């Protein structure tokens, strides 16, 4: 009797092992079987450069997923899969508004496909075309400014090129990667001489729009001499910590060294510091704020996250805010989006060169500036500034 029990147990074990071989942990069976049925009651909602397809699943017990197969206008074949827990999938990557055929296959656990169901879609105008149609370019201080609208916040890339020698050899400038609804980006570092520019818009599927051409002459831009900066102390400005001073943000060190401008950590209200940029009002174009790295982190502690810039030509030392005009709202964006305390190479690269912001072109000239920090990366108000560089135009 005991031997019989051992034999039965062994057979059960072999059966279990055989069953595991027949179906892996992902639910895929090795053996063949009958092909699954087809989806039914298919409906389509066309979107910008895409479409969402809904359907009723076939009733097969071993159904695993639904697969959509289609070809993009550029010849690329794509597959999109949706598990049997869902009754819809989304096909994307289209750059035109023509009709396209999508084939839907029901797939079972043996990776066998049912008969295809052909679905016709007609995508709405793609994001890249919307951005291209709304795009304008113009000269600005030190370069050019690209303006457009991206109403549905699609992920797009604006590709700018320049033929500065008029030889027909186009040189790539920095691509503009964005999903912002309002696009307003300046490309700097260009000399004030006429140049031929070209612009197109692409997406991650390498669809491209037509190319826009323009001849523009960048305006002259000058770096403001930091020897012209001076502290303008207001009574309601934030106190400093560790014997540091406001002028360290233009007289201090540039290599993440101590000391730097470091305001009171215990302040329970937004930090404010005030200075002048010269002996007379100037037409500001942009600035670059370099914070201090804490250990290996740029986005931590007193590194400004949200702050405002105010201008005045007739301030008073009591800090009366009615004498000041807000000219810029700034938010530092962490490239990786990783949680506080974690940074990657992209964060390190961005932090090491500082945070750059453009002033609006219609901002009038100002002699005095105030920085009000609304939030640092620690969630409080104090700030650490290693260096502040500013530019102006004639």
From TrEMBL:
Matches recorded under InterPro entries: DUF4959, DUF5000, DUF5126
The DUF5000 domain, residue ranges: 250-392
Keyword list, A-Z: Signal
Signal peptide (UniProt feature, chain positions): 1-21
Residue stretches making up the DUF4959 domain: 19-123
Keyword check for Signal: yes
Name of this protein: DUF4959 domain-containing protein
